[in-house]
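Ticket #4471: structure export looks truncated?
Reporter: QA, pipeline team
Priority: medium

Steps to reproduce: submit the single chain below to the structure queue and open the exported record.
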Amino acid sequence: MNHSNASVFRLQKNRTAGVTFILLGFSEYPDLQVPLFLVFLTIYTVTVLGNLGMIMVIRINPKLHTPMYFFLSHLSFVDFCYSTTVTPKLLENLVVEDRSISFTGCIMQFFFACIFVVTETLMLAVMAYDRFVAVCNPLLYTVAMSQRLCSLLVAASYSWGIVCSLTLTYFLLELSFRGNNIINNFVCEHSAIVAVSCSDSYVSQKIILVSATFNEISSLMIILTSYAFIFITVMKMPSTGGRKKAFSTCASHLTAITIFHGTIFFLYCVPNSENSWLMVKVASVFYTVVIPMLNPLIYSLRNEDVKEIVRKLVITKLLCYRI
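Actual output as written to the record:
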């Protein structure tokens, strides 16, 4: 029995021994390496400052200690983590000749990226439910969206992200790989890893299809149902001012949802051919690098509370500096 277990362990180890992945990224455009590095570095800097700044503003200001901003601070944290999982390696590959990544490094990047993508998908659904309660049951809002419920919803989003990621990573580790494997992307995403496997990947591909479809449909059902009720409630409001205020509270969230799920649908719909790889890369850049930067900008530029608090903080800092 012990001999059998040792053999299985050796077999598992041999599947990944000496395996490396080479992330091609944008290497087919050598003249664009430096401009792309500067663009992505700028985007990453804005992402880090924007998301960490949003978390700090929410934490230090009591006026923003509400369920909506509690969820927004976690969305910012997820965006920061997701971008940090992907972008540093992308930046490194734009300035070095050796674009290789170890098997462990590639699997870990996929594992963490998967956690944060699934968590963000659910977090946006939770935020839609929060807007539904705020608009449709304003008098019961603080009771219905208690601190306990908010914490449970956030914990459930992270937990489901971890469960999905562990499941998908387990089935990836069941595959066999040999030597150097070329990935025609800048990130270790599931389909690219599976494509270079030298064993049958049918189960792994079916698992991610079922998982992605379930997460996408369930989150969209919550979002669409919430906004259907919001729309009906808003249209019944007698005053135009009330309608405008209700819609303005949802505008930022609707913008973030449209960009996030729109990009996912685009990636799903792109035909799987050689000519489509550039479109997949561009969409992947938008999905992994640009969206984490856009979310804090959308919520800060479209949100009067955040704009007012940031304005006050800037004025206070300037006055302190002058004194």
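Status: closed, not a bug. The export was complete when the record was re-opened. Leaving a note from the reviewer for reference: Residues 103-136 form the longest helix (34 residues).
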